[in-house]
Fold each of these.
Amino acid sequence: LLNERKIAVIGFGSIGRTFVRLLTEKSHYIKKLAELRVVAVADSKGMVLKPSGFSDYELIKLCELPRSGLRSLPESLDLDIDLLYSKVQPDIHVELTPANYETGEPGLSNIVNAINNHAHVVTANKAPLALRFSELMDLARKNEVKIGFRSTVMGGTPLIDMLLSIRSYSVESIHGILNATTNFMLTEMHEKLIPMEEALRRAQAIGIAERDPRLDLDGWDSAAKIVILSNVLRREIKLQNVIREPLKVELSDIAECLRNNNVIKYVGALELDGKAYVKPMKLSRRDPLAGVDGTLNAVRIGTTIGEITLVGKGGGRVETAHNVLDDVIGVML
Ligand SMILES: NC(=O)c1ccc[n+]([C@@H]2O[C@H](COP(=O)([O-])OP(=O)(O)OC[C@H]3O[C@@H](n4cnc5c(N)ncnc54)[C@H](OP(=O)(O)O)[C@@H]3O)[C@@H](O)[C@H]2O)c1
C-alpha cells in the first residue's frame, strides 16, 4: 500500500496502552490519512510482532494484559530491538519507556537504533532528548527522518509548537511551573497547611507522582523540560548545567508566605545569559505564575515583542497519548 505506515510501540505501560487504545478509537479518522499498522509492541519483559499489523481487536486485547504481560502470550519473543527491526521494519518508532536521567537508557539506544534504521521517532520519554538533544537531531537529519517530542513538555498545552512558531521573536527568558506533582503538593500545602510528606502522599494517591519521587522533588523532570525548551530555541544546554535545588518546604515557610501575600512555586527557568535552574521561589501574588494551582502548568515567556503567558494542562495520561498520536500523524504527513 502506498500510504502504509508501520508502527512499533516500545514501552507498554500507562502511556503505551492509552496510546494504543486511542489509535483504535481514532482508526476511522486515521484511515483518511494513511494506513497505520501497529506491527510491534514491547514491554520490559518481551515483545509481540505481526508484520501485517495487529487488528483493532487484537490491540485492545493486548491492552487488557496485566503489566509486563506480553511475555505470557504464546507467540511472544524475548525483547530484542534488532530482531524487531529485522522482522517487521517499522516506519515509525514510538518510544514510551521510563526516563533515566543518568544513562538515557533504554530510550537512547532505542532511538538511535530506530533512526539508523530510517524510522521516524516519536518519544514521550524526555531523558534521551535531555541528555543528547543535538546529537539525536543531527542523526535524524542525516537519516532524513523526524523526531516528534511535543508530549515531553507541557503535554496538554501546545507550548513547543507555539515556541516553534515565533522564530522571529527573540526569547529572553522562560520561567515555568513545569511539574504537576510539585505544583499540586505546594498548592495543598498553602491551602490546607499540611506538611510536605503528606502532600506527597496525596499526589501519589491521585496517581500523578513519578514512581521515583526524586524525579519530581529533586527537579530532574523540570530540569529535563528546561533543557528541551532551550534546545527548541536553538540554545544548546546540558542537563548537568541546570542548577537544581530540590523542593524542601517547611510549614513555617508557607506561613511566612501567607503573611506576606506571597506564594512558593517550584520554578524552572532559562535566562538570556544561558543560566538555567530549577528552584523553589517566593512569588508575589501579582505574578501570573502565582495563581497557577493544582496540577496545572504554566510558562511565562519573556520576548523582545512582549511577554507571553501560557497556562494549561501538563502531560496527563490522556493528553500525552493524544500528543503522541498527533506527532505520529505529524511525522507521516
Ligand atoms: N504518565 C504521564 O503522564 C507522562 C507524561 C509525559 C511523559 N511521560 C513519559 O512517558 C514515558 C512512559 O510513561 P508511562 O507513564 O507510560 O510509564 P510506565 O507506565 O512506567 O510504562 C513504561 C513502560 O516501559 C516498559 N519498559 C521498561 N523498560 C523497558 C525496556 N528496556 N524495553 C522496553 N520496554 C521497557 C515497561 O515495561 P513493563 O510493563 O514490563 O514494566 C512499561 O511497559 C516515560 O518516559 C514518562 O516520563 C509520561
Amino acid sequence: MGLMRSFFLWGSRSCTLREFLPRYGFMRKAVSRFMPGEDIENALNAAETLRDSRISTIVTHLGENLLDKHEAETVAHHYLEVLERIQKRRLDCHISLKLTQLGLDFSRDICVEHLSNIIERANAVGNVVWIDMESSPYVDVTLAVYRQMRSKFENVGVCVQSYLYRTAKDIDGLLPYFPSIRLVKGTYAEPHTVAFDRKRDVDDNFFTLSLKLLDAARNNTMRVGIATHDMPLLKRVFHNASQQGFSRDSFEVQMLYGIKREQQTALAKQGFKVRVLISYGSFWFPWYMRRLAERPANVLFVLKNLFSK
Ligand SMILES: Cc1cc2nc3c(=O)[nH]c(=O)nc-3n(C[C@H](O)[C@H](O)[C@H](O)COP(=O)(O)OP(=O)(O)OC[C@H]3O[C@@H](n4cnc5c(N)ncnc54)[C@H](O)[C@@H]3O)c2cc1C
C-alpha cells in the first residue's frame, strides 16, 4: 500500500484530526468539491441539477460507528424524513446507509429494527435502500442482515468489494436471494490476509465479478451497480458486456458526486444508466480522508485552498 494512502487511511481513523481539522475553512472549501453541502437540501438540490443531465442519484448522510442509542435513532428518523422529501420532489434518488450508523456496534437488533422501518417506508414510496459495505470485520454481519432484509423486501441492495478475496464466494451465497448488488473496489485499509494489495489484482477481480453479476442478473429483477470511476476498467466491462448481448441499460454505472463529472454526463448521453452518490452531513472528515487516500493528488486541492483567500 502506498505511503500516502496509508497516511490518509490512518488519518480517517484519528480522533484528534477529526476533532480539529474540520474547523478550518480551507478544509471545508476543499471538501466542497465532493459534497454540495452539509444539509440534505443541498444534496437534493444537486440531485435535481443532475436530473437535468439524465443522471439519477443516491443520497447518503455521512456518519459511521455510532455508539449512542439516541444518535442512531435520530439517524433512522432522519432517513424516514429524507424519503418523504425525495418523494415530494419526485426525484429518482435512492438512499444509502451504513449499518454502524444505525447502531450495529452496540445492538444488532436495534440496527435491524431501524433498517426494517426505513426499507418498509422506502417500499411504500417506491424507493430503494442500499446498504454500504464497511471494513472487513463487518462483512459477515452485513451480508447476514442483507439476506434477512431481502427475504422480506425487494427494494434493498448491498455493496460488495472486489479487493476482498472472499467476494466471489459471497456473491454465490447471495444469488439465491436475487440480490441487488453494487460492486466497488473497496475503500478501507485491509490486511494482506483478507484483501488483494496490488491494484491490478483488485481491478481484475472487479472485471470478473462484474461479468458474473451481469450474467446472474440476466432475465430477472436483480439490479447491478458497477461503481467505479476507473474509465479503462469500465470500458473493458462495457466491451465484454456488449459482446455477451447486454444492453447499455441492463446495469447502472455508479459514481461519486464531483468525480469524473464530464464522463458521468457523457455516459448518460450515450444511453448508459448513470447514478451518482451524493454525500452530505457534518461528519465528513473520515469519509474525506478516504477520498484523499484514493487519489493523493486531491491533496493539491486542499493546499490550493489553504493558500487562497
Ligand atoms: C456509488 C459508490 C458507492 C460506494 N460505496 C462504497 C462502499 O459501500 N464501501 C466501500 O468500501 N467503498 C465504496 N465506494 C468507494 C470505492 O470502494 C472506491 O474506493 C472508490 O470508488 C474509488 O475507486 P475507483 O473504483 O474509482 O478506482 P480507482 O482505481 O481508485 O480510481 C480510478 C480513477 O478514478 C479517479 N478517482 C478515483 N477516486 C477519486 C477521488 N477520490 N478523487 C478524484 N478522482 C478519483 C482517478 O482518476 C483514478 O485514477 C463507493 C464508490 C461509489 C462510486
